[in-house]
Amino acid sequence: CRLDTPPVSSTSVFVHILYYRLQALKSAFEKKYGDSPQFYACAPGRVNLIGEHIDYCGYSVLPMAIEQNILAAVSVNKSGSIKLANINPLYKDYSVSCSEDIAIDRDNPKWYYYFLCGVKGIQENFGITNLVGMSCVVDGTVPPSSGLSSSSALVCCAGLVTMEANQKSLSKVALAEICAKCERYIGTEGGGMDQSISFLAECGKAKLIEFNPLCATDVKLPAGAVFVISNCCVEMNKAASSHFNIRVVECRIAAKMLAQARGLDCSRLVKLAQVQGELEASLDEMEALVEEVLHPEPYNREEICKALGITTAQFCSELLSSNTQHVTHFRLYQRAKHVYSEARRVLRFKHVCDSEPADALKLLGDLMNQSHSSCRDLYECSCPELDQLVELCLKSGAVGSRLTGAGWGGCAVSMVPVEKVDVFLKAVREGYYLNDPRRAAMEKQSLFVTNRRRGCHFY
Ligand code: ADP
Ligand code: NG1
């Protein structure tokens, strides 16, 4: 996409839209700051095809980037401050002095704090004492709080522009790792999937993202189907609620309980994947261990402290996050069972994509459906509207459908055979959106066929 000449008519709709968005961003920048931007950066959102809530347990996930993204127009300035503005008037201007410590208010997760997470990540990585001043205007098309990683796209875009403005350079893998770490300043203890695919995505490909060390491997998706995203139109802001971190904490406690039961040094082990590694067990064996060691009834604090030999004070400071201090009961059995079974489904999904059996679509669809059931029943991260939407998608021709991203609202991703896409879109449109005025107003940005986009870059 070149900024100086409009795209020729034969180029894709994506390039046309990008061209006009960049032009609008340039005008907004000039109006705001009285000068042209020096450069632009772009970071895509993502859809996770399978592997939900397991990245922070150390397990591989299988996302792809989408064409919805965060764009930023940027200039270095001499004002000694970072000035932030947004095309969307709901996101208010903000300015912060470069000489102050960057403070991020977790109790009040405004949009600019996500941007500042990216700035702080780069600043700390390079030990920059004097950040250069920057003037920025941001424009985003990733639906917020809907499981498509709008927040991480913003953090990654901010990390990228801060690196460029301060004349530093890093590999994409290093940038992804820094941005995964620094998004935690906002309070959510995510695992790194979103930032990894935002930087490491390539056109036309989904990726298996593995952690420790971070590595992205191409996954060739079957040609006979497309992935369709539909938003149930319920928003769930992760940083403003404790749902997400409660699950992170439950998994951490479950890891320690399993480690303790098998005589491992549980003070060192915080991830379910680490326990598997230490035991050199298969995922099937880990599921059997969950059955043997954990009980389905919720655990209270006393029971956990007694089993782990720790005090309540240690429990609160070492295991709970600041926004989960109020939680009294923990469903360890259900969460661990979801994680180990979901980790196995990711590997099977990849294997089916690689081996291309004749019934690939059915096998992949079954895995997606099992994933949704597990998220709904064991991980309890769905909501009635999302379950209703997933069911409608299956009735409308999808061979697999599941919630994607953190859940408790947001989007479903459905795998739909190519020849059924038109019928599918019509049925979901009529069955979920058109009969409700609020949803109908959001339909255009809520129901769409994905296009596999490339990752973060500059213009
Ligand atoms: P997601 O699942 O999309 O990452 P989160 O709830 O974690 O959702 O983060 C959503 C937040 O990210 C929004 O409330 C807003 O603060 C920020 N955000 C998302 N899109 C934009 C945008 N276009 N411009 C500014 N901030 C944005
Ligand atoms: P989204 O969908 O962006 O809220 C979150 C986490 C991911 C992952 C998924 C669930 C962040 C930044 N992102 O994604 O790491 O755990 O939930 O699979 O916390």
What does this structure look like?
- The chain has a domain at 13-221: Ribosomal Protein S5, domain 2.
- It has 459 residues and is α+β, with helices and mostly antiparallel strands.
- The longest helix is centred in the last third of the chain and has 24 residues, at 332-355.
- Strand 3 and strand 4 (94-97) form a beta hairpin.
- 44% of the residues lie in helices and 18% in strands.
- The chain has 15 helices and 14 strands.
- The model has no long low-confidence stretch (mean pLDDT 96).
- Adenosine-5'-diphosphate binds next to helix 2, strand 5 and helix 3.
- This is Galactokinase 2.
- It holds the Pfam family GalKase_gal_bdg.
Mean pLDDT across the residues is: 96
What's the quaternary structure here?
single chain
Lateral arrangement of strands in the main beta sheet:
4-3-5-2-1-14
Binned strand content: 15-25%
- Assign a percent range to the helix content: 40-55%
Going by CATH, the architecture of the domain at 13-221 would be 2-Layer Sandwich
The radius of gyration is 22 Å
Question: What is the CATH third-level topology name of the domain at 13-221?
Answer: Ribosomal Protein S5, domain 2
Largest sheet: 6 strands, mixed
Keywords: ATP-binding, Kinase, Nucleotide-binding, Transferase
Organism: Neogobius melanostomus (round goby)
Family: Belongs to the GHMP kinase family. GalK subfamily.
GO molecular function: ATP binding; galactokinase activity
Keywords summarizing the entry:
alpha+beta; single chain; binds 2-acetamido-2-deoxy-1-O-phosphono-alpha-D-galactopyranose; four-stranded antiparallel β-sheet; six-stranded mixed β-sheet; ATP-binding; Ribosomal Protein S5, domain 2; ATP binding; 459 residues; binds adenosine-5'-diphosphate; GHMP_knse_ATP-bd_CS
